[in-house]
Amino acid sequence: MSDPFFTLHAEMPREGPGDRESLDWAMGVANLPRDAAILDAGCGPGADIEGLLAHAPRGHVTAVDLHPGFIAQVKARWGDDPRVTAEVADMRAPEGPFDLVWSAGALYFLGITQALEHFRTRLAPGGVVAFSELVWLSEVRPRAAVAALSQEYLPMGNIATLEARIAAADYDLCGLRVLTDAAWEAYYTPLDARIARLRPGADAALAEVLDAAEAEAALWRAHRDAFGYALAVVRPR
Asked: Which segments does the entry list as coiled coil (predicted)?
């Protein structure tokens, strides 16, 4: 029996908020060489690979994710391009060295400080890590948002908390910005359409997943001033 979560996400272009404009900003801060070696850690279906290669056209992207379906999507698009290697693997597995570790919303699985400490051993001299992390943006935290987000993102902090976790890993912060509404809608608008296609005839298990996804999107749209993703570019000291 297929997992209803992956039934929903099987045709999604990306697995979380993000867009080309925010990636371009991060790459401008990173100032990569044109032949950079890049790790896309927790790549999902590979939404950011095109943008990464635009900034390193003579480089190479190693894209890893634990879900075989996502890696199959990456290979379907990039399988003939020698600049891309896609692997079903833990994001900690590739050895490097890498000029850039890019991770869109996935480092929280490891913990930011712990992830940065690990990736220090995978970076080439002068290499950087660029990642996004969910944070509180306001001291006004709606009860519904606290209840929903505290279940998955423990312990979720604000930007100062994120900066402290970066410093605890002995990294310098090169740049930080909050993802725009457009970056969130780049994820939620296709998700809305996918839910609408799957809703007719959905069994109970799938309907539960669809309901949860709708509630997640509605939560952000109602309380977008309270929380968001911070995109950070950091370098080991």
From this structure: none
Domain segments of the chain: what residues? 4-236
138 and 226 Cβ atoms separated by less than 8 Å:
yes
Dihedral angle of Cα 55, 19, 105, 230, to the nearest 10 degrees: 100
Rounded CA-CA distance 55/222 in Å is 35
Q: What is the pLDDT of residues 145-172, one digit of tens each?
A: 999 987 776 688 999 999 999 999 999 9
Whether this model's pTM surpasses 0.85: yes
CATH code, residues 4-236? 3.40.50.150
Continuous segment of H or E residues that includes residue 47: none
Q: Which residue has the tokens 């949860």?
A: 212
Query: Exposure pattern of 66-98 as b/e (b: 16+ CB <10 Å)?
Result: ebebbbebbbeebeeeebbbbeeeebeebeeeb
Phi, psi of 71 (to 5 degrees): -65, -35
Q: Is 92 in contact with 64 (CB distance < 8 Å)? A: no
What's the token pair of residue 92?
Answer: 């900690």
